Amino acid sequence: MQNEPLSIAHALEHAARFHGRVEIVTRQTENGSIHRYTYAEALRRTKQLANALQSIGVKSGDRVATMAWNTHRHLEAWYAIAGQGAICHTVNPRLFKQQIVYILNHAEDSVLLLDAAFVPQLEELWPQLTSLQQIIVMTDEEHQPQTTLPNVHCYEKLIADQSDEFTWPELDENTPSSLCYTSGTTGDPKGVLYTHRSNLLHSYAINSGEANGISGRDVVLMTVPMFHANSWGLAYSCPMAGAKLVLPGSQLDGNSVHSLIETEQVTFSAAVPTLWKMLFAHLDKQGGQLDSLRQVLIGGSAVPCSMIEKFEQRYNVHVVHAWGMTEANPTGTMCRLTNEVDSLSPAEKQKIRVKQGKPVFGVNLKIINDEGAELPHDGVTMGRLMIKGLWVMQRYYKAEFDAFDQDGWLDTGDIATIDPYGYMQITDRAKDLIKSGGEWISSVELENIATGHPEVILAAVIGIHDETWQERPLLIVQSATDSNVTGQQILDFMTGKVAKWWLPDHVEFVSEIPLTAAGKINKKALREWYSNRLA
Length: 535
Ligand code: AMP
Fold this sequence. Notes:
Elements: H1 9-18, E1 23-27, E2 34-38, H2 39-55, E3 63-67, H3 72-83, E4 87-90, H4 97-107, E5 111-114, H5 119-125, E6 134-137, E7 152-154, H6 155-160, E8 176-181, E9 191-195, H7 196-207, E10 219-221, H8 234-241, E11 244-247, H9 254-264, E12 268-271, H10 273-286, E13 295-298, H11 305-315, E14 318-324, E15 331-335, H12 339-342, H13 346-353, E16 358-359, E17 363-368, E18 383-389, E19 410-418, E20 424-429, E21 434-436, E22 439-441, H14 443-451, E23 456-466, E24 470-479, H15 487-494, E25 506-509, H16 523-534
Helix pairs in contact: 1-2, 1-8, 2-3, 7-8, 9-10
């Protein structure tokens, strides 16, 4: 067999050569207008950018950062940087300022490509940045902002005179291609360095029928940001399949997402539950359908049963629940019903649909107890979830030691069960577990049930100190703006759906549940809020 190394550039080359007229559509960040072009044009401009980056001194192995929403220019940057052997470091602009400073310095990025809207943010951070030498604002000359930053280029001007001929170097497939820092819930953010090999193997796997099943008949709305966990692999897997790509820019509100779904006839999309909540809130208020949409992938945090039911029963959209993490490129599991479970009763099937699913081939899972012994797949026993596989991280960027154990298993920090059919279910993050009277209570399950109440927008459960039980669950609710729902009504709704002793003793209402930069419930902030209230 031939031994051609796996290379990211090949994905875009393939799309341009064999799906050359397929569109990439972007809602532009400058003014919300729509930009359209094809994979063939995307490749030409990507090569111009690759030449431009070399002209300003980028070399193989350099870290080149991006701080940008999902746009055609950001996509070009991903391919131009990694394709030439440099490393594309995606920075999440919603992180705290100090975290952004930390990761730009830690990665020793030499060049940063950013959206014009982030220029003021960068000006503020500039005095603390130690490695950045050149800035490229991803816009045209008309929208190029005035700035006090040094060595600033305008993207369109920079690439305009460059040749669209560029020969991608033949890279070892284990060459690093991209760098993504985890949100850093404990300590400083940690970098995960992906390779050409890990990205392409991951993309083959997620395009398979057992996973996303994306094909050249699909129109994919890439709502998951390119700065969060590698855009769940879609920026590679869509060109590989020849799917039309729709990039929403910075506008992720319900109205904007819905209008793109309608005008571009989107068939597939992927996002965290909070984004779908915003879409539902818009549709509930304004009306509208999701006729073209066949499937949504939901992950990043647990998907409430009510969300699956609403998508499927009201809008005829199939939901696939997925679990992953930055450290795993990111996909670990996807939940699709197999023949074996399809014959179960509707209620049993629904219980499986909310699980995170089975591992995609290429990754392996197990659950262990605190002594490291593997636990049974009985669907009840909870243990620490361990992962290993073809696209699972070995060690954090610049770390001295490997992150996995001597047998190659990485501790995910999640607590899970695995049932006899092989479906994994996350019951908690290790640090979010509530231990009441020595027994574990799953905050995720309580949140799922509470969110099913029609007047609850978001629900979070944290453990609070209790004299008798050491810890008890506290339910924190963000209810609909016009709602008068009481804590007791929510608890009545939850009664009978979990063991009685799991039911929270108290319900607190907040006007807004804080979210992390990745759109997940920020339990750290909620714990702080609660302890400040007690103080
Ligand atoms: P991140 O690296 O920021 O994507 O965070 C990864 C973590 O998010 C995982 O370790 C889980 O704790 C959580 N997570 C991801 N997907 C899910 C899911 N479908 N259900 C519950 N938690 C999830």
